[in-house]
Amino acid sequence: MLLWPYNIRSFRGDGGIQDTGFWSYPRYHIRFSEVRLDKNGEFGFACDGLPPVPMSFQLSLRGDHEYDALKQLETHVEFRMTDDQGTEICRASGPLKEWVLRWGGSQDIGGFWQPTAREFQVKRTRSYKLKLSIKDAAPDSPVILARPILEGGGNELP
Predict the structure, then answer these.
(1) Is 3 a domain residue?
(2) Digit-coded pLDDT (tens) for 80-112
(3) Cis omega before residue 26 (within 30°)?
(4) Measuring CA to CA, how many Å separate 129 from each of 2, 79, 83, 155?
(5) Residue 41 CA to chain centroid, in angstroms?
(6) For the chain, what is the domain count?
(7) What is the CATH number of the domain that holds 124?
(8) Residue 26 domain flag
(9) Which site among 54, 73, 81, 117 is 20 to 30 Å from 30 CA-CA?
(10) Which parts of the chain have pLDDT scores under 50?
């Protein structure tokens, strides 16, 4: 819970932040540059001044994809987030077929997330590094664009 107001101008880093308001859930959305899930690669992002609320990580998808095909992806993805003291804040790893596939949404078609990357605590005064590794992508896979996103805060109504 915020004891004093958070101003999104406190955020610095490789992504962009949006505050959708107190009554929304999640309230804060930090979007980083898109990555391709159909090609092997490593991606790094840095940020500080995050809102001091529990955050969750997901890979938000866009484009035209078949749900059943996405549920079978063997592509191995590892997400790791560390603070400026080298402490691991969050890690999610495994083939995408073992991640949870959220389908539908107002700004995208869905996204992948893991329970190990939900509701982790961050501090406004720390700097963070996010690392995303894509391995074992199928050579015949169609182009799959995903946007790494951190989300948190807001008012979750019962």
Answers:
(1) no
(2) 999 999 999 999 999 999 999 987 655 557 899
(3) yes
(4) 23, 11, 6, 27
(5) 17
(6) 1
(7) 2.60.120
(8) no
(9) 73
(10) 1-2
